[in-house]
Amino acid sequence: MRPVLTFSLLATLGMGVVAPVVTAEPSLTVSFKTSQVGGTYAPANVVAVWIQDAQGTFIKTIGRWADIRKNHLVLWQAKAGLNDVDAVSGATRANHADTLMVTWDVKDKLGALVPDGVYTIKMELADSDTVASGQNNQGVFTFTKGPTIDMQTIAGAPNINGGFLNVAIKYDPNANACNNNVVDPGETCDPPGSCPVDCAPSGDACAPNELTGSAVTCTAACTTRTITACVAGDGCCAAGCTAATDSDCGGDNNVNGGCSTGSGGGEGLMAFGVLALFTMVRRARPRAA
Hints:
Layout: H1 7-15, E1 27-34, E2 46-52, E3 58-65, H2 74-80, E4 88-90, E5 100-104, E6 117-126, E7 137-145, E8 150-154, E9 164-172, E10 209-212, E11 221-224, H3 253-256, H4 266-284
Parallel strand pairs: 3-4
Antiparallel strand pairs: 1-5, 1-9, 2-3, 2-6, 6-7, 8-9, 10-11
């Protein structure tokens, strides 16, 4: 049975690797900082972020920094239930130094895309063994899911917005599904923290490893670039280059410069060959009687 070449394989063989198609999906990104309530465990704290619809119905937890003290997130527990396992972003926080960020794929707990409309982002922070939601910091923000981008920045202060500061909200109906912990089509890494930030040397000056793409879009990757141009001083004597067109060719460069299969340095190799041939002929010449 003859093998069947798919279109993708034919494209790879005949035209090079075809760039993957990046799938666009709606996405909500929320970043913020927190301030303490002043409870028993301050500055240690626990935080939860969740989504409700316009009627106040719980949709999904999209961020939670809490472990054994999550039951003190009283309002969140009442909405989500203590055994809610969505979006466990981290354990109890030691302080308020870091900016927190959550990303939601705009899907409910069952994985269905929610309809267009106005949604509420709820935030809660506790730093003591609270039993009533009024003892905690409570943040309430809204955004509109629709055909256009909804972007908001709320500076805030410890005594407003429930103690949540520098809140940045961005809903994008055509965002790439980056930072959802899944390497989707068109991505090379996810989340962004797993993406490469530099590349190890290849050991070949004519085929260096280079960082392409961006961690912000989950497309960062290390790729090998083949040098074909005759460029002086780049350490590579590319194929077809000579000492006349590239100073990296000729002399010791072909030995120590990590150079490729260029024609440069041919003069040195020819001289070495002539010397070797002369030596062999001399050894083979019969001695006079």
